[in-house]
Amino acid sequence: MITTVKENTDSYDAKDTDYDGLWKNLIEELFQEFMEFFAPDLYPEIDFEKEVDFPNIELFQFVINSRKGRKYSDRLAKVTMKNGTEKYIFVHIEVQAIGEQSFAERMFKYFYRIYDKHKHPIYSIALLTDASHQHYEDTFRYSFYGTELTYLYNVYRFYGKDKEKLKKSDNPFALAVLAGIYVSENSGRTKKDDEEKFQFKQQLISMALEKYSHRDTYLSALLYFIDYILQVPAELQEKLYELLPIAQNEKEEGKIMGMEKLRDTPTFGRLFREIEEEATKKGLEKGMEQGMEKGMEKGMEEAERNFAKKLLDRNYSDEEISELTSLELKDVSELRKSLKN
């Protein structure tokens, strides 16, 4: 069962992109790839053949209270290690714009509450998505007259990442990070910059199609993420759709129709509808054609039977009637019996 922290989002602008939900979905769908990309030290020790569980964290009321007016993603996953024991590791994931001191304190609160509840080792990692913010906190410290505590957690910063290196990566999260970096670096820009966003979105979609055309799970999750996190105005959306290579290739229709997740997306949702409408049209045309063929066949069969009846009235033998018509000998015999009855 997958459970997330709930909060009242009524105050959010309905037009805002749900970055929180987009990251949550991507992390859950491609969790193994997430760990490979963001936690390469822990990744080799995890047995991914065993099911990954996302435990309930709604019990932590402080999570809900601390989230009011802010949007970031929390994920808690329970994984099994390869060491053959029943020991579990809890992976705590945070997506946050800036690693402030208050954030470091909250990371510590997560740690001790999760540890107190489960009594298992905890691997904590914070994704700091503000690509323009150089400074960050990765440690919470407490000191009071001889009582001291230091809590250090893992951090992945979007700031300063090599974009060309990300483009060459085979891990799908590299493209997600590129999208996140773009959003961070271009927040607050005007509509005049929409053309640039369009160009970047087209490039990212093309890269996803090129890299993962053979990996439907990767492709579906990434296209959904990219389509929503980089939304463009309607006129540019139309232009983007017309340039989609997958929209121009009938051989790819089966692939895209298998990605049900994309049905409601801004770009690929339209592709779904057009393929379905075309399939419906072809189905109707084929049905009408088959109906006409069946009607003609039925009419010819009826004409043959009427002709055979006249030959029977003139005392032709069954063999002669079968030779003069397309009816089988047994059909002529059955027809003779029905007329006698």
List the helices and strands and how they pair.
Layout: H1 19-29, H2 31-38, H3 61-67, E1 73-80, E2 88-96, H4 101-118, E3 122-128, E4 139-144, E5 147-152, E6 154-157, H5 163-168, H6 172-185, H7 194-212, H8 216-229, H9 234-243, H10 253-257, H11 268-313, H12 318-324, H13 329-340
Parallel strand pairs: 2-3, 3-6
Antiparallel strand pairs: 1-2, 4-5
Helix pairs in contact: 1-8, 6-7, 6-8, 7-8, 7-9, 11-13, 12-13
Structure overview:
This protein is an alpha/beta fold. The protein has 13 helices and six strands. It has helices at residues 19-29, 31-38, 61-67, 101-118, 163-168, 172-185, 194-212, 216-229, 234-243, 253-257, 268-313, 318-324, 329-340, and strands spanning 73-80, 88-96, 122-128, 139-144, 147-152, 154-157. The strands form two sheets. The chain has a four-stranded mixed beta sheet. Helix 1 packs antiparallel against helix 8 (216-229), helix 6 (172-185) runs antiparallel to helix 7 and helix 12 packs across helix 13 (329-340). The longest helix has 46 residues, at 268-313.
Short characterization:
By secondary structure, the chain is an alpha/beta fold. The chain has helices at 19-29, 31-38, 61-67, 101-118, 163-168, 172-185, 194-212, 216-229, 234-243, 253-257, 268-313, 318-324, 329-340, and strands at residues 73-80, 88-96, 122-128, 139-144, 147-152, 154-157.
